[in-house]
Amino acid sequence: MRALLQRVHDARVTVAGQVIGEIGPGLLILICAMQGDTQAEADQLAAKIAKLRIFKDAAGKMNLSLKDSGGSALIVSQFTLAADTSRGNRPGFSAAAPPETGRDLYHAFTKAVASLGIPTANGEFGADMDVALTNAGPVTIWLDTAG
Asked: What is the pTM of this model?
C-alpha cells in the first residue's frame, strides 16, 4: 500500500457540498491499495503510521507519534498515488488494486488505524471529493509497503 501523510492543524473532506469527515490536529492520510496488497499490508502500514514520530514534543523536536500527540487521522482513498508517469504525458494507474479490492483494503486500513486508539474520520471511497487542509510544518511523508 502507498500513503502520503500530511501533518495538519485541521483537515476536512467534502462530497457534493457536504462535509463527511473532519479532524483537528493530526494527519491527513491519502491511501492507495496496490496490486497484490492484502490485509497484512494494511495492518503493517497502520502500525507504522501510528508509531511514526513526526509531531513536536515540548522542546519543539519531532519526537511524538500520532497517538502520543493525541491527534486524529483523516483517511482518504486516492488511487492516483499509483500513477505511472514513466511514459508519455498521461499517467497510467494499472498498478492500483482493482476497485473492489481497493475498497476492502481502504476499509481494512481505516479499521486498523482506529483499532490502535487513534480517532479517525474518512472520505468516501470512489467519490469525487474536495479535501481542505492546513498543513503543519509543512511535514509531508511518503510511505510504501513495497519498499
From this structure: 0.95
Query: For residue 107, how many other CB atoms are within 10 A of its CB?
Result: 15
Q: What average pLDDT does this structure show over 109-131? A: 97
Go through the domains of the chain in sequence order and give each one's CATH number: 2-87+95-137 (3.50.80.10)
**DSSP assignment letter at 88:** S
Catalytic residues: 78-80
Q: Which helix (H) or strand (E) holds 19?
A: strand 18-23
Contact status, residue 10 vs residue 122, Cβ threshold 8 Å: no
- CB neighbourhood size of 64 (10 A): 17
The three-point CA angle 85-141-44 to 5° equals 95
d(CA 39, CA 34): 12
Q: Is the dihedral of CA 31, 122, 97, 128 positive or negative?
A: negative
Q: Where do runs of H (alpha helix) occur along 1-147?
A: 39-51, 66-69, 99-115
Cell of 85: 508517469
Distance CA 1, CA 137 (A): 25
Q: List, for residues 32-89, the tens digit of each pLDDT value.
A: 999 999 999 999 999 999 999 999 999 999 999 999 999 999 999 999 999 999 999 9
